[in-house]
Design brief:
- The complex is a heterodimer of chains A (413) and B (388).
- Chain A has 413 residues and is α/β, with parallel strands linked by helices.
- Chain A contains eleven helices and 15 strands.
- Chain A folds into two domains: 129 residues, no CATH class; 243 residues, NAD(P)-binding Rossmann-like Domain (Rossmann fold, 3-Layer(aba) Sandwich).
- The longest helix of chain A is centred in the C-terminal third of the chain and has 27 residues.
- Chain A is globular.
- Chain B is an alpha/beta fold and 388 residues long.
- Chain B has two domains: 132 residues, Peroxisomal Thiolase, Chain A, domain 1; 238 residues, Peroxisomal Thiolase, Chain A, domain 1, CATH 3.40.47.
- Chain B has 14 helices and eleven strands.
- In chain B, strands 3-2-4-7-1-8-11-10-9 form a nine-stranded mixed β-sheet, sandwiched between helices. A two-stranded antiparallel sheet of chain B has the order 5-6.
- In chain B, β2, α2 and β3 form a beta-alpha-beta unit.
- The chains are: A alpha/beta (413), B alpha/beta (388).
Chain lengths: 413, 388
């Protein structure tokens, strides 16, 4: 059983902040196949299409038949932990301040032997299940978890290094006026976040769900207007060092394409709220998050971007909106590289049409704000980097992987 | 096909450049010192060296070719053998064949590495692609962590205890007491061994070698050439070499020796009882224990009992790692793969640096190395004898 985390005490502001370090993240190009799987929470290893051998470590030829047809595929994750050790002396500065660090040899049922990080409840000689996670370097590693869930298992210090669990962390929901913002506040409160800061522009203006929002435990309303640089900067100055996870819920959804929309007013607005809003948040909060990446139990952990799945493929009915979403996706990719030195994950959550007024005319299936919020919390708990929420999002992900050009044509209908 | 004997080819002139914990000199410097010592003591000119085999981890970006220009050599036979703990025996057997075939007359086999303050970490993190992709990101414990897992599994499987490994380490320390350049020259007690700092459970401090800088070297030539140079030489009765044996063993519990052991002894026309001392590759004591089993001194799994029933010092019932091995002398990178071989040559020619094993006429030397991922891939061994 894992020792439950203790809620961190208020930090002494005079104390030095521990600077973030990273384990070595360099990998061969082939090994980043594991990174791709870990980013989405899949357990995938190479399988030889010619002789069915499951391969690890990643190779460029099958060690049984030398075939080069060895793609990454999901495989069964069960195995036996045949030997374990606790590393107490290491040449790496990241691990040096985290020793003893347990690692072990797992014989997978599907064949290969994997040297893996060990969850505290994984026992030598016992059954384990392997998961691929992104470590603080952003590259994939395998961790052996006990075969069945154990109490408080998410609190395990090794595992928590690879996840962004909201428990005891302080979250900023950038816009509480939307249904998604409110659902998000509720979900983070339920997940054990220590404080849920919820941003509101013009807080005196009433809105649907206002009373409910204020009733959520540990919610603290803060003034925040993502279209106002000063407002964003001011919040970061006042509370930035107390914010460990940022979830950008600022939303601007309008129908209309690029040719058939008249004028640039709407485009300017959506760019201001969505793209420039993201840049303002990134510039104000990014450097503080990056600096606080190793700041104890409630270290800075993640910046979450909620993106329409149509950021990946334009949907002409909402064409202008999609273009802005695509710009936000590109910015998020950049943020990933920029925040990686702090070990801070930039999570992209791709959703299908939401069950909100702005998608009123769109037929189901649609994603409720609560489902989106749950997916975000789950993604953080699991340490994912790319998440697809809802049937439409999943459908588009699959079609895109097979034939992007076909999808482009299909989106026009 | 029956393998050809090594008759006519001999090894001579064991050279060691005294080890240092850290060195600001380059690997080229250390290799150069060893090569210089060889020609000086053999009374040769540089151009007499027409074969050159070199082993080093830290000589990059140079290869053996670049070193010929660095050292002013013009060899007609050249080999680069960066095989870690297998380097020495692999160099010996290749050079012997070259000499037998007439491809070279005098082969200088040289191994050496430097040890800068940060070179150990750099070597670990870039040791191999599999190490980079699948080992180093897991705690970065280096070889200590990999051998900790192998040791733990061996202990679980065969009931070896830390006290058994202690016995190997303590005996080697006794043997090292008279070796001037040994890194560890203080007598080791069981208490000190047992209470040493843990490194990666169950590996503790005295299970680990001390990385250092140094070089080892020897010559391989025809017997008549050695005689004309007045160099006492040793005969090569047999050798074996194997890489990536038993890939389906989930954990390394045996080395590749097991595949080739019958041939090693039959080619030598000796049995394990006939050798007077043994030099195993001792990067960790568990590997020495595995070698006792895999090389035929006892049955598989009987390693712990074998150790309990023998004394392993130079005056004991089973003289083992007679100069203290890497565990006491230090591991100068690839020179660690030469250490046992060079020491065996000294014992068999009665010119020991430390204490002499009585009646040392035949011995077994083995090599092991290259943790590419989760296990040592290379194994080799040689049976050597005093020249007639």
């Amino acid at each position: 059983m894992t020792e439950p985390l203790v809620r961190p005490r208020r930090k002494n502001p005079l104390k030095r902040t521990r600077l973030p370090l990273r384990p070595q993240g360099v990998r061969s190009r082939t090994a980043h196949g594991l990174t791709a799987a870990a980013a989405e929470g899949r357990f995938a290893l190479q399988i030889c299409l010619d002789c069915d051998t499951v391969i690890y470590p990643p190779r460029d030829a099958c060690p049984s038949c030398l075939s080069a047809r060895i793609p990454f595929r999901e495989v069964a994750r069960g195995g036996t932990l045949i030997a374990e050790t606790a590393v107490r002396t290491t040449t790496d500065p990241y691990f040096r301040e985290r020793t003893p660090w347990r690692v072990g040899t797992v014989k997978l049922d599907v064949g290969p032997v994997v040297v893996a990080h060990l969850h505290g409840d994984a026992v030598e000689g016992g059954r384990v299940r392997l998961e691929l996670k992104l470590d603080k370097s952003g590259s994939a590693v395998a961790i052996a978890l006990p075969e069945k869930d154990t109490e408080n298992m998410a609190d395990d210090p090794h595992l928590r290094e690879m996840t962004c669990d909201p428990k005891f962390r302080r979250v900023l929901i950038t816009d509480g006026r939307t249904g998604v913002g409110q659902a998000m506040a509720k979900a983070f409160s339920d997940a054990g976040a220590a404080i849920v800061f919820v941003g509101l522009a013009d807080p005196w203006k009433p809105f649907a769900g206002m009373a409910g929002l204020r009733k959520i435990e540990r919610v603290e309303i803060v003034p925040l207007d993502v279209t106002d640089t000063e407002s964003v900067t001011e919040l970061a100055e006042q509370n930035g060092a107390r914010i460990d996870i940022v979830v950008n819920t600022a939303e601007h959804i309008r129908a209309g394409g690029v040719v058939d929309r008249h004028g640039l007013t709407i485009a300017r607005e959506e760019i201001d709220v969505r793209y420039l809003g993201l840049l303002r948040l990134a510039q104000a909060f990014g450097p503080i998050l990056r600096f606080r990446g190793a700041d104890g139990v409630n270290s800075a952990a993640a910046f979450v971007n909620l993106l329409s799945v149509h950021a990946l493929m334009n949907w002409p009915a909402y064409g202008g909106y999609c273009a802005t979403e695509a710009a936000c996706l590109s910015a998020a990719q950049c943020m990933r590289a920029e925040l990686r030195p702090g070990g801070v994950k930039v999570v992209t959550v791709f959703f299908g049409p939401l069950d909100i007024d702005w998608f009123q005319t769109v037929p189901p299936p649609k994603v409720t704000p609560a489902a989106l919020a749950d997916a975000v919390v789950r993604a953080l708990q699991r340490g994912l980097e790319d998440v697809f929420v809802g049937d439409v999002a999943e459908d588009i992900r699959q079609r895109l992987a097979v034939n992007p050009k076909a999808l482009e044509r299909e989106m026009a209908n | 096909m029956q393998r050809k004997s090594y008759e006519g080819a001999v090894a001579c002139l064991p050279v060691t450049i005294p080890y240092r914990r850290y060195s600001t000199n380059s690997a080229q410097w250390w290799l150069g010192r060893a090569l210089h010592e060889l020609i000086k003591r053999a009374g040769l000119r540089l151009k007499d060296i027409d074969g050159f085999a070199v082993s080093s981890f830290t000589v990059g970006p140079d290869t053996a070719v670049g070193l010929t220009q660095h050292f002013g050599l013009s060899p007609r036979w050249l080999d680069h053998i960066p095989f870690g703990g297998a380097s020495g025996i692999v160099a010996l057997r290749r050079a012997a064949r070259a000499v037998q075939a007439g491809d070279a007359d005098i082969v200088a086999c040289v191994a050496g590495d430097t040890n800068h303050v940060d070179s150990f970490r750099k070597t670990l993190s870039t040791f191999s692609r599999f190490a980079q992709d699948a080992v180093y990101p897991y705690g970065s414990g280096g070889a200590n962590a990999s051998f900790a897992l192998i040791t733990k599994h061996y202990m679980n499987s065969y009931g070896a205890k830390r006290e058994d490994f202690a016995k190997i380490c303590i005996a080697q320390r006794d043997n090292a007491m008279s070796i001037p350049h040994a890194m560890m020259k203080k007598k080791l007690t069981l208490d000190e061994y047992m209470s040493a700092r843990p490194i990666a459970d169950p590996i503790h401090l005295f299970d680990c070698v001390m990385p250092c800088a140094g070089a080892e070297a020897f010559l391989v030539c025809r017997e008549d050439v050695a005689k004309s140079l007045n160099l006492p030489s040793i005969r090569i009765l047999s050798t074996i070499e194997r890489h990536n044996a038993f890939p389906n063993d989930p954990m390394q519990i045996r080395g590749g020796w097991e595949l080739d052991i019958g041939e090693l002894w039959s080619m030598a026309a000796l049995t394990p009882k006939d050798v007077d001392f043994v030099q195993t590759y001792d990067d960790y004591p568990v590997i020495s224990m595995m070698q006792f089993e895999d090389l035929g001194f006892c049955a598989k799994g009987a390693g712990p009992d074998f150790v309990r029933s023998h004394t392993l010092t130079n005056d004991g019932t089973f003289p083992h790692n007679t100069s203290g091995g890497q565990l006491s002398v230090g591991q100068a990178g690839a020179a660690g793969g030469f250490l046992g071989l060079v020491e065996a040559m000294r014992q068999l020619t009665s010119q020991p640096l430390g204490s002499q094993v009585p009646n040392a006429n035949a011995c077994l030397v083995s090599g092991f190395g290259m943790i590419n991922y989760d296990r040592g891939l290379s194994s080799c061994a040689a049976v050597l004898a005093r020249a007639a």
